[in-house]
Amino acid sequence: MRAVVQRVTSASVTVDHRCTGKIDQGMVVLLGVGSQDTNKDVDYMVEKITGLRIFDDSEGKMNLSLTDINGAMLVVSQFTLYGDCRKGKRPSWSDAAKPQVAEELYDQFIEKVKRTGIVVASGVFQAEMLVEINNDGPVTLLIDSTKSF
Asked: Considering 67, 80, 126, 146, which one is annotated as catalytic?
């Protein structure tokens, strides 16, 4: 699994002119599922992302997690994170999971984050979405369950 994690002051996702998810302070997780991903990757990503200390403490240091600040998470499916641009001008999507598998692991990620007590909002899997992100910092991190970067 791959994720782009952004610390935000607010964010929302809209599908067909209808807001399907909205948060105030917290993080946006653009989540891609790879063809080799399993439940193990979901568990790794949930633990890693929910534990990230990317929020400022009283001294202005990034020492606090999403739980520490009582923040929320907006999760948006993002198969394009598996776009391979090394050859030619058109990305290859061959490393992205098939939609049925990807949706199941995406849903598991959301459910497991909710079980930690974090409030989660989300987009709609495989829909055309308009995502509004007010990046705070900006703080943007890349996370891969295979630890390839």
From this structure: 80
